[in-house]
Fold these 2 entries.
Entry 1:
Amino acid sequence: MGTLVRIELYTAGADQAKAAFRAAFARIAELDATLSDYRPESELNRVCRTAIGTPVPAGADLFRVLAASRKLAEETDGAFDVTFGPVIRLWRQSRRDQRLPDTAALHQAAARCGYRKLHLDTARQTVMLDEPGMQLDLGGIAKGYAADAALAVLAGLGIHRALVAASGDLAFGDPPPGRHGWKIGLDSPAAVLQLANAAVSTSGDEEQHLDAGGRRYSHIIDPATSMALASPIAVTIVARRGVDADGLATAVSVLGAARGLAFMEARPGVAGRIVTDRVIQSSGWPGARR
């Protein structure tokens, strides 16, 4: 899924640890083969090629991620939209070329996007797309789902003190021995969270961006404009599951500070911090004043 994954765990011995690492990373590899748009033969890309106007069956993992994505798209009125793969690919190429994408190409790509063109049949577990050339991109939610899944594999092996980090998307089990939680450092401004049996995701332009025309463009795309975010914003979300934290971090980035804060406050079990020219924390943020 275009990133590196790190796992930390506590076991009774080295043999148990090695077996646990193998099982957890095997699960992540399975999900990479299912959910990655970087792999031409992933299940995701096969569905994009074959589901045009025809419902096609989807595996359990792909269908769960698409269902969660569609639900978040509806709740945010399209601020989160996994159908914007054609636009995302243009911006991905622009970061490699170090120049802004062509405006006409962006318009043409955007015409093939829109979450209402993605149809899911829960009873039959099928996927259908409305138009040729549609491309689903799960980069804003798949890593959180994979972190959850790897943590579940470890729990199934009786290993509950574990952390799975897929770049900026982390899922935590029970805390390390003798501690109340896993310590996670945040930047700008510096802060330390201590979490257990939770997940945290951070979205921002620090690592992936394009500098052009005197502006910095994030890797996060606003579906309403097909433009990369150009106003500095970093969002950190704490939730019970990684799939929720991951998707919400992207959605709140697009919604912006005011709408994003209101959206977080309306969701039970979710807390967040938004950094623009100031720091805004939701009422549920660890240590926040109520």
Entry 2:
Amino acid sequence: MRTWRYAIASVLVSTLVTASVFAQQPTGTAKPGILTVGFIPDEDARAMVRQSQAIMDIVAKQTGLKVDAFVGSDYNATIEALRAGHVDVALLGPFSYVLATTQAPVEAFAVTVIAKTMQPSYRSIIIARNESPISALVEIKGRTFAFVDPGSTSGYMVPAAAFIGAGITPEKDFARVMYSGGHDATIMAVAEGKVDAGAVADRIYERGCAKGLADCNKLKIVCKSDPIPNDPLLYRKNLPEDLKKKIREAFYGVKNLPFGEMGTVARFDPATDKDYDPVRKVASALKLDLTKMK
């Protein structure tokens, strides 16, 4: 297994086009009496909602509101729902969060700490089938590859930067590039031979293997990234302060429960927007203008 460093290079990514000024949004929740919690579609939407129910129930009890879940059709859809004021609280990936802050008045208030690692971080990995001769980034050149989504940190931004740092331009140097729409879908695409290799989050890969999504005895990890800050929880800045306090207290009180694509969350630690400055620094080094990404 080989480890790559964040690359200082120019990366082309695709995401939502928005106006330079945030749209006006009403104060209070998106729907009267209801707190809408948004997720990005890293895994099957129904499974994500089902495995988040215990935490949703805690939040409902703490806030006195009914809690509904929203899972976007893709990463952009969830960010757009935040921008439009249709989602009140959301669990986003690190890069998705940074993008969201350029498009909607939102702020992080917690970071997930995964029970398995007890760390507020994870890694991006590239996987291939055992029978494949691929053993390094440069050996993927000329082959087929699956990213997750242009808004995904571990499923696009980090591996794309690494490829370009290795002198590889995916759209030009790969035989074919696909965007699977979810980490689970990428794992299956590699396992079923639809692509030669793909990028996913290590925690989702491990959980997918455990639940039999694919026969991981036939798969291998080619390389992995440095640690990436874990997914942040955020809320709209214009929610009432007393409601934001209740939301924070509800999540800070959670211990060892499943949530979204994170698996079992040991706890939620307090976080601020500045905790995700390292992601912004990578984007800056890559010469990405987050307000004009198309």
